[in-house]
Amino acid sequence: MKMEAITNVGRKAGSGPLALLADRLARHSQLPAAARRALLALPFTRCRFEPKAFLLLEGEKSLASHILLSGFAQRNKLAGSGGRQIVALLMKGGLAGFEGAFFPAADHNVQALGTVEAAAIPNRALVAVAFAHPMLAAALWRESLIEASVAREWILNVGRRDARARILHLLCEFGLSRELAGLGAGDRFELPMSQEELADATGLTAVHVNRVLQGLSGEGLIERQRRRIRIVDRRRARRAADFSPAYLHPHKAPGESAAATDIPG
Amino acid sequence: MKMEAITNVGRKAGSGPLALLADRLARHSQLPAAARRALLALPFTRCRFEPKAFLLLEGEKSLASHILLSGFAQRNKLAGSGGRQIVALLMKGGLAGFEGAFFPAADHNVQALGTVEAAAIPNRALVAVAFAHPMLAAALWRESLIEASVAREWILNVGRRDARARILHLLCEFGLSRELAGLGAGDRFELPMSQEELADATGLTAVHVNRVLQGLSGEGLIERQRRRIRIVDRRRARRAADFSPAYLHPHKAPGESAAATDIPG
DNA sequence: CGCCGACTTGAATTCCTTCAAGTACGGTGG
DNA sequence: CCACCGTACTTGAAGGAATTCAAGTCGGCG
Questions:
Q1: Which of B160, B197, B209 to mutate to probe the A interface, most A CBs <10 Å?
Q2: According to the model, what pLDDT value does residue A15 have?
Q3: What was the pLDDT predicted at A257?
Q4: Residue in B with minimal Cα distance to A239
Q5: What pLDDT does A68 receive?
Q6: Helix runs in B161-205, H state only
Q7: Cα(A48)–Cα(A51) distance, rounded to whole angstroms?
């Protein structure tokens, strides 16, 4: 919505926004130096979103991708009955609006949780570089496939787990993702969302989320004060949450992967 | 599982399995003649899966993609508590196991609903052709993004709609997808799954699915005999289901789309 | 004909929602 | 510094949607 552009166009790329994206991609993909250089050379614009501001609006064409620099955001969809369902969380290094390169209209909203700083990159430029450097395209593609995998896990979470496991699963996922994104420990963090938003992410009501959180504290699975969460025993929490990290595809594909060898560039 | 390979390697490509894939991609993407030719030249193996046979097993590396030629399949994940969640449906022209090109282990199962005929294509070959023809890569990429979009809608479906809307939504989606895949009318079809499977797709129990289906008949929204379904009034059904097709991205992106112009080849 | 899986039905229970108040917290302005 | 305000959080009681358990029916197939 209100994005006070500071047009801080791409200088000092060494640790700039695009390096953040490059590093994120490097978590799961091999990025040749040339591809990385090309990525870092992309133009961008810094912008800032107030809490609840929309980074992307369903139905609208998105011309730019936003790389999250700080803060958190969520993807959501609205039901006709008025309900809201959060379908994904975004954090530092995450990309929002990239589908705009492929579709004339966004199929979901992206909204800031708290204040968000981001870098906007024109999709045309991003896509052009990607296809000039197939390994970069493969990395971004893999990133989309990971998002799809996470979405499938969320279907399972909402469809086949009870409220307790559902919420705990979200906490485990958030903790691990945070950690993978280099935001600190995975078992001790400030949850960037209200219980209402937690409810929208788990397909529950805020009231019930509240009760379940208290239950989890009572069980000694988590400790919390306000939105500060501590997962007391990771192993136990993961068991109770039915959480196994494989769906996040946290490991780099080995060098002999098809996509890593058969691609020119 | 038991895939009686008939090694019918790529001859008569004009209307063969790969043409099916090409046509499916052409529904949403522009495929230059050269890209199409290259795709059609890929080697493949015909195979057949009995009901419930696995086309893809979670945790295993998939070396080949399967294009569905006839029959239906479902992607599913299992919860630790024993529950099963179907997270996607596949039909004629659909691709299973392509993520194997990007990941060392599958994050979900793919299982036949009824008997399935398919064509297996080595992922290495498919990826190689894709990256040799950027418009083909873009088409396959767009296909993955559509799957992700559908997954997000399923999260919404399971998380924020009641059983009635949930089931009706699935019926509407299935009907439309069928129609888009050239399998006949979207409001009159044989549902390729049991009520148990319908339950696993909607996050409900078979018993409740049964009751809700009867309710939908009672309301006059659908007619059914055994697994044969008729959606009596599409408009009314879609309203009741909170169904709008946008998330399927059924329309071809206009020519000036970034991904359609900025890509070489 | 008899069997098996899929479907159907009923009754009891449970998990989660809804509604309705109340409390704590952080920010704002006097 | 404190009174005020709004938002987020908390609590209780009642209701309802969906589950569970258990039994029965239907239909296709060997």
A1: B160
A2: 78
A3: 44
A4: B80
A5: 97
A6: 163-180, 195-202
A7: 10
* A208 CB contact with strand C at below 7 Å: yes
Q: What is the mean pLDDT of residues B55-64?
A: 96
Please tell me the predicted confidence (pLDDT) of residue A20.
Answer: 95
Strand D: list positions under 7 Å from protein Cβ. 8-13, 17-22, 27-28
How distant is the Cα of A194 from the closest Cα of chain B, in angstroms?
A: 18
**What is the reported pLDDT for B6?**
38
Q: What is the mean pLDDT of residues B236-251?
A: 96
Q: Say if the Cβ atoms of A145 and B142 lie within 8 Å.
A: no
- Closest by Cα among B204, B179, B200 to B74: B200
Average pLDDT, chain B: 91
pLDDT of residue B252: 78
Per the CB < 8 Å rule, is A102 touching B138? Answer: yes
Residues 6+ apart with CB under 8 A from B73: B49, B55, B89, B90, B91, B94, B96, B110, B111, B112, B113, B116
Under a CB-based contact definition with an 8 Å cutoff, are residues A95 and A121 in contact?
no
Contacts of range A21-27, beta carbons closer than 8 Å, 24 or more positions apart: A21/A67, A21/A93, A21/A95, A23/A93, A24/A93, A24/A94, A24/A143, A24/A181, A25/A136, A25/A139, A25/A140, A25/A142, A25/A143, A26/A139, A27/A180, A27/A250, A27/A252
Hunting for tokens 């888009």 — which residue is that? B180
pLDDT value for A12: 43
Instruction: Tell me the nearest-neighbour CA distance from B177 into chain A, angstroms.
Output: 17
Question: Which segments of chain B does DSSP mark as H helices, in order?
Answer: 17-28, 33-40, 123-132, 134-160, 163-180, 195-202, 206-219, 234-241, 258-261
Torsion angles phi and psi, residue A72, rounded to 5: -130, 160
pLDDT at residue A208 greater than cutoff 60: yes
For residue B253, what pLDDT is reported? 65
Does residue A111 lie within 7 Å of nucleic acid chain D, judged by its CB? Answer: no
Q: How high is the pLDDT of residue B145?
A: 98
Distance CA B186, CA B189 (A): 7
Whole-number Å distance between alpha carbons of B48 and B68: 10
d(CA A1, CA B4): 56
> Per the structure block, which two tokens stand in for B246?
């946008």
Residue in the structure block whose two tokens are 């129990």: B205
Q: Would the CA dihedral through B203, A248, A169, A50 be positive or negative?
A: negative
**Interface mutation target, options A152, A170, A202, A204, chain B, most CBs of B under 10 Å:** A152
What's the pLDDT tens digit per position in A11-31? 444 579 999 999 999 999 999
CA dihedral for B56, B62, B64, B67, sign (positive or negative): positive
**pTM of the prediction?**
0.92
B-chain CB neighbours of A102 within 8 Å are 138, 141-142, 145, 253, 257, 259
